[in-house]
Amino acid sequence: MPEWESMTPQELNGWLKDACKNWLAHDGVWFQAVERRYGMEAAIEMDAEAWRRFSKVEAGRVKKRLELNERPGLQGLALALQHRMYAHLNRWEVRWPEEDLLEFRMVACRVQDARARRGLPDFPCKSVGIEEYTGFATTIDDRVEVECVSCPPERTTDQAWCVWRFRLRSA
What we know:
- Helix 1 packs antiparallel against helix 2 (40-66).
- The protein has one domain (6-168): 2-Layer Sandwich (Muramoyl-pentapeptide Carboxypeptidase, domain 2).
- Strand 1 and strand 2 form a beta hairpin.
- 52% of the residues lie in helices and 18% in strands.
- It has helices at residues 9-38, 40-66, 73-81, 110-117, 126-140; strands at 91-98, 101-108, 144-150, 162-168.
- A four-stranded antiparallel beta sheet has the order 1-2-4-3.
- By secondary structure, the chain is of the alpha+beta class.
- The mean pLDDT is 94.
- The chain has five helices and four strands, in the order H-H-H-E-E-H-H-E-E.
């Protein structure tokens, strides 16, 4: 087991990036195994279920580590999004088009970029993303509403792979 306390910040960062890449590689290998055995539709359905559950676990751990209060609002969500596993792998940005509207944009996506390099079509991840981002956001603050603006197969911009908007439910 590595001796975390003796690692330099650079060594820790390298280890973290490798762990995140391994996590994502496992997700992809798992998905491909299900797809080969049961087909794309079943694989996406199972993937959505897995992300529905995992996103809540991930958000709960991030929320605890950051010591966010029960309902930290969109500011808390913006901070939490920076601490997801994906944050160490993909290029993303957070925007505030309006005071009460948080927009999360996945500018570069390892999964989609790898598929493009292999000549494969975009992965149709919208249905999975709805489960993923809704689970994560509502675990951070149960008042958050999630809207998908753009995501394969309904990608409406070439400026980002996917775009998600978050608002707090009106009282």
